Amino acid sequence: MISLFRLRRRGVVFALVSGALVLAAGCTAFGEEVPLRIPRVDRAPKLSDFLEGVPREAEAVVTVFKQFDPHDGAPISERTAAYLSYDRKNLYVGWICKDDPKKIRARVAPRKQIDTDDRVTINIDTFQDHKHAYWFDVNPYGIQYDGRTTDGIGDDPSWEGLWYSEGRITDDGYVVLETIPFRSMRFPRAVKQIWYICLARMIQRNNEFAVWPYVSHNRLPQFVGQFAPIEIDEDISPGRNIELIPYGIYSRDQYLDPSLGFQQQNEHHPGLDAKAVIRDALTLDWAVNPDFSEIGSDDPQVRVNQRYEVIYPERRPFFLENASIFTMPEQLFFSRRIVDPQIGAKLTGAVGRCGLGALIADDRAPGEVLAQGQTGHGDRALDFAIRAEREFDHQSHVGLFLSDTTFQSRSNRVASVDARYIAAHNWIVNGQATTTQTDLNPTGYRAGPGYVLGLKKSDNHNYFQSVYTDRSPGLNATLGYISRTDIRRWDTNYNRQWKPASQTVLAYGPSLDVMFIYDHEHRLQNWSTTPMMSLTLPRLTILTLQHTEAYELYNGIGFRERSTVAALATSWYKWIDLNAVYSQGVSPNYYPAAGVAPFLGNSNNASMVLTLRPQPHLRLDEMYYYTRLATIPALLPSAAQAAGTIFTNHLIRSKINYQFTRDYSFRAILDYNALLPNNSLVSSAYSKQADATLLFTYLPHPGTAFYLGYADTFENVDYESGATPAYTLTKLPGTSTDRQIFVKFSYLLRF
Question: In degrees rounded to 5, what are phi and psi of residue 316?
C-alpha cells in the first residue's frame, strides 16, 4: 500500500539454506498477462539523448499517467514521458518531465533525503508475486532514494541498491536517466523475463503522485498487485552476485567514568560484511567482526514520564536486508534487542510464492552489563529467529515464526503462526497465535499464549480497522517489542475523507478511534475515545484537530484523562517545511517521588520541526520539543508545599548539512536537553546536557564510504578526584564527559 511517507519521500548456515530450498519446492508464480515489450539496445542511452526532448527510437515509451493522489484517476497535471530499454547488464529508464523550472522542488541532498522533492520512480516486481517490489526514486538533480515495498505492510527504505542516476533541470522542466544493473535485483532465471512495473512522478506542490499503469485507491491494499507486465525477451541473469565489504574503525575516546574519573580509550578494529545470492533468489549475509556501528544520529524523542519504553529505529546494515519478512501483527522480533553482536549470519529471500528470513547472532551485551566477578560476566547470549511465509490465493499468506535467545541457563522461546486473507471487496482479515516459554533459572518459569485478530478495509474515501489483542500474563518475547501483557484489548478506527474536485481543498473529513483494555480478571484497565478532523490542502499541507477522553488504571489508581491536540504540517514554499504540534490536557505523573502516589497533573506539550533550504546545497533543521506537567490545585498531593510545576523538559536540536556534491557532505548537529524537576513530586533528577557532533562524509555509493567525525558531550557536573563528594551538580553543562574523534571507512567489492 502506498503511504503518505511514500508521497513525501517517497552447520547452521547450511541447514538454513537447505531448509529454504526444500520450502521453495512446489511454489509457483502468478499467471502472465499481455506485457509491454522492452527493446534491447546496443548502445546505452545517455542523459544527453533526452535533453533536446527527442530520445532515440529504440525505447518503449509511456506517456499516459493518471493520478493516484490527490484525485484518483485524473490526468497528470504536467506532461511526462518515460523511455525504457535494456542491454545485457542494465535496465534503463529515461524521463522527460515538463514543468516550470521556477516551481520545481529539488536539492543536492544526501542519498535518501529527498522526501519533499519532486521526483520520478520505477517500481519493479521481479518475482511476479504481485506483493513485493523494488523502488528507485530520483530527483531532478539525480539524487537517489531506493527501497522495497510490500503490499499490506508498506514501504521499507532500508534496502540499499547499487545503481546509477543522472538528472538535470532544463528550460522547460527536467530530465532524468536511471541505470539499474540486473545484478542489483533478485529474480529467477528464465528464457525471458516477465516483470511487473509501475512508473510514477511526484509533483509535490500539488500533492500529486501520478502513475502508469492506472493504480486506484479502490483496489488497496493491492498496490503492487495493480502493476503492469513488461517483457525482457532474453535470458538475462543477475549472475554471480557476491559482495564483500571490508571496513575499519579507529576512535579516540576520553570519557568520565562514574567510579574511576576521567579515562582514555583508543579503539581500532577491522571487519568484513559479506553477501552472496543463492539461486538468484535467496540472500546469505554473514560477517566476521561485523559492521554493527552506527554513524547516523537518532532524532531526539521525549523520554521523560513515559509509561512504556521509548524505542528507536534500526540503522545497522546487517539487520536491514529484507527486514520486512519479520513483520507480523505482533512485533515478536525487534533487531535492536541484539545490542552488541560480534558475529552473525542471515538468510533472506523469496522463491516463487514462498518467503524466508532466518538470523543467528551472538550478543555480548548481557555479559557486559554484569560487574566483574558476577556469574556470567563476559558471557554472551545466543539469539536466533526464523520466519517462513507461504502465499496463497491473491496476496493472502500464512506464516510461521520461531525465535530463541539463551544466556547461560536462562532462555526465552517463541513460536507463532500468522495469516492474512484478502476477501471479496478488499476486506482484509489477519490474525496471529503466539506461545512463549521463558526459563528464568533458577528463579522461575513463565509461559503463556497471545492472540491477535484484525479486520480492515480501505478505499479512496474510507478507512476502517478493528483489532482485538489478547496477551496472557505469561507472554514474553525477549527479542521482540511487546509493551504490555495481561490484556484483552480492542481498537477500532474509522476515517472518512471527502475529496472534492478542487485545487484549493484536496481532502477533508473526520475520524474516530475507540479503545478498551481489560485484564484477564475482567478488570477495566483503559478506555479512550478520540474524534479527529483533518483538512488537506495543496503543497503538502495538512491541518488536524483532535480531542481525547480517556481512563487509565495505573498502580491500582484510576485516572480520568483528556487531551486536545492541534497539528500543522506544511511545505507551502519550496524552501521551508514546518511540522508543529501543540497539546494540552490532564495526564498522570507516572514516576512520583518516594512516598508519593501517582497523581494527575495539567500537561502541556509542544513540538516544532522547521527545515530551511536557502539554496540547493544547504539544509538547516531546527527541532524543539517542550513537555510540562504541573499540579492541579484540587488534586494536590500532600507532599507538595504549593501548586506549581512537577517537571519541565526542553529538547532542542540544530542540524546543518552542506552537500558539496552528490558524494561529499558536511554535517553539524547541536543538541540540548534540559530536565527541570520538582524533586518533592517526581523521581527524575535535575540534568542539563549539550552535545556537539561534526561529520564529514564521502559516500559515492552504498557500501563504499569514508567518515571523519568528532563528538562531544557536556553535562552539568563538576568532578574533582580528591574531593568528597567527587561529583557536584552545576547549573550549566560545562564539563565534557565524553569526547570522541573517529574515522571509519568501507569499500564495496563485487564479484
Answer: -75, 130
The helix (run of H) or strand (run of E) holding residue 561 is strand 557-570
Q: How many angstroms separate the CA atoms of 369 and 601, rounded?
A: 36
Enter the DSSP assignment of 51: H
Q: Which residues of 81-100 are buried (b: 16+ CB within 10 A; e: fewer)?
A: bbbbbbbeebbbbbbbbebe
Residues 91/82, Cβ–Cβ less than 8 Å:
no
- Of 37-41, 56-60, 523-527, the least confident: 56-60
Provide the grid cell at 423: 476477501
Burial string for 226-241 (b: 16+ CB within 10 Å, else e) reads bbbbbbbeeebebeeb
Q: Which three cell numbers stand for residue 372?
A: 566483574
In angstroms, the CA 651 to CA 6 distance is: 28
What number is the average pLDDT over the span 670-682? 95
For residue 718, the surrounding DSSP H or E stretch is strand 717-719
d(CA 154, CA 221): 9
CA distance 1 to 735: 49
pLDDT surpasses 80 at 24: no
Instruction: Give the pLDDT of residue 468.
Output: 98
Residue appearing with cell numbers 547452521: 12
Using alpha carbons, list the distances in angstroms from residue 101 to 43, 49, 338, 348. 30, 20, 48, 43
Query: Per mean pLDDT, which of 181-185, 624-628, 746-750 is the most reliable?
Result: 624-628
Amino acid at 372: Q
Cβ proximity of 711 and 293 under 8 Å: no
Distance, CA of 469 to CA of 330 (rounded, Å): 9
Cell of 367: 555479559
Half-sphere exposure of 433 (CA within 13 A, CB side): 2
Q: What is the pLDDT of residue 641?
A: 66
Does pLDDT of 5 surpass 70? Answer: no
- With beta carbons less than 8 A apart as the criterion, state whether 119 and 202 touch: yes
Evaluate the CA torsion angle 108, 111, 115, 119 in order and state its sign: positive
pLDDT tens-place string over residues 137-188? 999 999 999 999 988 888 888 888 899 999 999 999 999 999 999 988 888 8
Q: Work out the pLDDT band at 16, boundaries 50, 70, 90.
A: very low
- 160, 197, 736 from 124: Cα distances, Å: 15, 5, 50
The dihedral through the CA atoms of 311, 317, 319, 321 has a sign that is positive
pTM of the model: 0.88
What Rg do the C-alpha atoms of the chain give, in angstroms? 27
Q: What is the tally of helices (H) and strands (E) in the chain?
A: 5, 41
Instruction: Verify cis geometry, omega within 30 degrees of 0, for the bond prior to 221.
Output: yes
**Residue pair 479/334 in contact by the 8 Å Cβ criterion:** yes
